[in-house]
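User: Structure tokens for this complex, please. No commentary.
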Amino acid sequence: MKVLVVVRQVPDSTTNIKIQAGGQDIERAGVKMVVNPFDEFAIEQAVQLKEKRKDVASVTALIVGPATAAEALRIALAVGADDGIHLQDEAFDRLDELQTAALIATVVRGGGYDLILIGKQEIDLDSGQLGPALAELLDIPHVGTTVKLEFAADGKSFVARRRIEGAEEVVQVSLPALVTADKGLCEMRYPSLPNLMKAKKKPVKVFKAADVAGFAAAVANLGGVKMHAFQPPPERPPGKMIPGEPEPAAKELARLLREEAKVI
Amino acid sequence: MTNDILVFAEQRNDKLHPAALQIVTPAKELAARTGGKVVACLIGGALNAAVEAIDKTGVGAIVTVSAPALANYSALRYRTALAAVIGKVQPRVVLLPATFMGRDLGPRVAAKVGAALATDVVALSINAEGTLDITRPVYNGKASCHVGFPKDRPAVASVRPNTFPAATGGGGATREALAYTPAPGDDRIDVKEVAKAGGEVKDVTEADIIVSGGRALKSEENFKIVYELAKELDAAVGASRAACDAGYQPHSRQVGLTGKTVTPRLYIACGISGAIQHLAGMRGSKVIVAINSDKEAPIFKLADYGIVGDLFKVLPAMTAEVRRLKG
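Assistant:
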């Protein structure tokens, strides 16, 4: 079994977001970048599969992004991925999510990957498009928002539990397949310093646009949305603090929610 | 492409998701601009009550794809069915609810039919060029942006639940049933079971009102006072990451960056300080109430109403008062 993990690099969730003058994007300078938390779950799941099962031949980590995205790839390698693929070209920066899925599909099609793991969404744009779209373009089944994965002994199928509103769906899926990871699947181990050093020696293939045969055609017929007019969130008017002892304060709160806010 | 707006009216077991009724509201506004009609699409097993319910929202046409194989959601089968409906209707815009199903299905279908896609949108319009332009939150709600669509392909958007009121009015929409023609390999996903999680209590993503507890509750047992208020308000119970990590509540109830994003009418945060990771999941709520003993807690900056005090005293008093008001 060959496993592929798709990794994204995103601004740390505690970062202050400043919007560029003109509103065409956020300020990128000085923003601390980290591995997308949902992709961490996917990385760990891939590595655990390799540790637990004899039939997992390799785990490959893939990222699309500028030279600085290599750092996120290195973390995946330090945690236990065997090799990396870095799709790095200015032309790739202009792709939207669906087109990025088409790019990745073009690169990994024919690569013999039986299982593709990816986080359920990226915490910067929160679009969640990449996983399901990649599965569609590769014509393989996918299971979204997965919290548990159990492989059949023969390694040809798995049973997954996926989170939905107020319930969990239990689905059986045959390989090859794609799985998007939700919180609960597993927590990524901390990459140790020696492993981060060793990760530098693991092979990483870099692909430019010119190295991807059929790139232009693959991204021409889908997607193409453009983000513009970034704005800070609307200001909330200052709230009303209700003073006093717990009991009268609670009574007053209930009254305000009923008579003023009209929500109960 | 026609000028029609297609709405994916999500249902399970012949019961519409509340968000299905809500997304007809922006669909009607868009159709008024494009000069087309709103077409609702229902995919499932037996479809009767759900069809009647969507007909009461004033859609112009209803297309159903009903088959035993579609009784449970399957990303592959539903993709095949929805792509067939899109092929038939040729809509300019397709709207789905940004639910677990809509967010799972939208990207697959958009990739299948060669459309463009934006997810989790909160405002939609048709611009001067006649194409869709939407607004969506980004960076955990710390900013929002517009997204413009190309002219030459269908625009697909999933709409955040509880953003629009449920549509009403009308009836007598034209009805058409399409057959489900399985694509090769549609059976590669087999739904074994849909298991209810967390007993009979409402899920946070489905609730109009959420009462959430944080680490200050100190134990699973103490969450009882949160559940009691939730029961009086017919609300769901949520929890902060700290409370879930401490084992007070299951992760399925976690609201926040790595939990669920919620947009209820009323969100009551009890003993939650308001870390960025939590705010990311609930800042879209209409009315926010904070009850916390620490008057410096960041949650108060976001709250419409706040009480600085001991939640073990405030919550039971609140529960009693709500019970009294309900009579």
